[in-house]
Amino acid sequence: EPEVTQTPSHQVTQMGQEVILRCVPISNHLYFYWYRQILGQKVEFLVSFYNNEISEKSEIFDDQFSVERPDGSNFTLKIRSTKLEDSAMYFCASNFGGHRSYEQYFGPGTRLTVT
Amino acid sequence: SQQGEEDPQALSIQEGENATMNCSYKTSINNLQWYRQNSGRGLVHLILIRSNEREKHSGRLRVTLDTSKKSSSLLITASRAADTASYFCATESGGSYIPTFGRGTSLIVHP
After folding, report:
1. Chain B positions in Cβ-Cβ contact with residue A48 (cut-off 8 Å)
2. Which of A3, A34, A111, B43 has the most crowded Cβ, counting Cβ within 10 A?
3. CA–CA–CA angle B40, B111, B12 (5° rounding)
4. Pick from A4, A10, A1: nearest CA to A110
5. What is the pLDDT of residues B23-79, one digit of tens each?
6. How far apart (Å, rounded) are the C-alpha atoms in residues B78 and B83?
């Protein structure tokens, strides 16, 4: 069964450094998403991406964040200058979107630790 | 806010018992979904129920939706230790395909 994959599983970085989190969505999906989950808290939407552009973003997704689909398979989340409060699990998800499916398929997550 | 809120926050039962979790939300929705999250892992989609549906089944899972009360319940019958996880409801409304998650119910099933 196809699945969403994410790399790395755990990333440790120093405050102020740039990080890129990588995701490979399911190949025939059209919509891509990033979420984060701070330890012990709820899952929070960051951004959705469709047709090579951001379709929606939350207040969390400020200028420090960017997303890109550099090729036909990868979907990346970049944090330009990490802060301590960026420490969280980051989940990528994908789906067909539109009338075909609301169900989102989540990857296993990347644990980001900012020190 | 469209946020779903699960109740109870934590539930501890014995294997074989049924587990019921509830979700309440504040405004009209297009659909409501239930997800499971094992500790330290990603979310797994369980069931989607649309606003015009009242009940759905999938294996040992039964989901109900009462739009008049703005609430949903997830029933897991004959629970197993492997059902131990956090369970989240997520609502979608309007033209957005973005689910808004609640804080989840932590279920522990003792063998």
Report:
1. 97-98
2. B43
3. 65
4. A10
5. 999 888 988 999 999 987 889 999 999 999 999 999 999 999 999 999 999 999 999
6. 10
Spatial neighbors of A44 by CB under 8 A, at least 6 apart, are: A35, A36, A37, A38, A58, A60, B101
Instruction: Out of B44, B88, B98, name the one closest to residue A45 (CB).
Output: B98
Chain mean position to CA A91: 5
Quick one: closest CA in A to B99, which residue? Answer: A45
CA angle, B10 as apex, B9 and B14 as ends, to 5°? 150
CA dist., res. B91 & res. B97, Å (int) = 9
Q: How far is CA B104 from CA A32, A46, B35, B89, B101, in A?
A: 23, 19, 9, 7, 8
Pairing of β B10-14 and β B105-110: parallel
With CB atoms and an 8 Å threshold, state whether A102 touches B41: no
Look at B42 and A44 and tell me if their CB atoms are within 8 Å. no
* CB environment A41-67: b (16+ within 10 A), e (fewer): ebbbbbbbbeeeeebbbbeebeeebeb
Percent of chain A at pLDDT > 90 equals 72
Which residue of chain A is at minimal alpha-carbon distance from B43? A106
Most A CBs within 10 Å: which of B1, B39, B45, as the mutation test of the A interface? B45
